[in-house]
Write a structure and sequence with these properties.
Helix content is about 40%, strand content about 20%. It has ten helices and ten strands. Helix 6 runs antiparallel to helix 7 and helix 6 packs across helix 8. The longest helix is centred in the middle third of the chain and has 21 residues. The radius of gyration is 21 Å and the shape is globular.
Amino acid sequence: MAINFFSSGTLPTTIFDSTVVLIPKADNPELVTQLHPISLNNVSLKAITKAMTNHLKPVMRKLVSPRQSSFIPGSQTTDNIIVVQEVLHTLKKKKGRKGGLVLKIELEKACDMLRWDFLRDTLKEVGLPSDWIRCIMYCVEQNRMRILWNGQLSSPISPSRGVRQRDPLSPYLFVLCMERLSHMIDAVVRNGEWKALKLSSNGPQLTHLFFADDLLLFAEAETRQIRISGQRVNYAKSLMYVSPNINKDKASSLSRRASIPLKSELGHSWEGD
């Protein structure tokens, strides 16, 4: 089946059927957000996408910058955590009129919101062969799911965006799309629309880091910096940290304009000891 797929580019449609089971994240859930969807996929399809993943993994380090540390062979999340700890340590001691800010942004249901045209353009931009792009997009777009609810399966649902849950290939496709977002951020910085953070006069510019679907933005603490666009932001799980030398009124203004809550600490996962 796999050999035929890579030569013909087609598979039996039933192989793309999946069942979604909703697992409660709380006792007596009342909201959809209190349910965690688990997708049960066809084993044959997972074997095919796993083979594709094994061919893609060795070249990921060439396609993705060090700003992304998730799902990249040879990289560790701790590499970027050390950078964040150094940023916070320096900002806490910052003096003078100029301050710095860090935005920790979680992209809302990032894998589910990924547009297929954006994914296709991304695969072309990184230079994957056209046959590979055709096979990848075929597996992504031929997706049909049923939801198991109260012991009954729903009618088939055909998504129009997003990548398949629990598929070996999905995290790598998502990381490639985040790398394209990284290029867009770099372009904004080059155009002078976003002023990067510098920890010292001779130090490198810091603009952003990725941790899977978490995005950290670094900038000088200026009101004009606060413009967030692109993917939908999960405001409930996003936060802003501003260096202590910025007065409270200005810090509050930055927070209101970004619609992101202001926190005195960025979070224990980034703080270290």
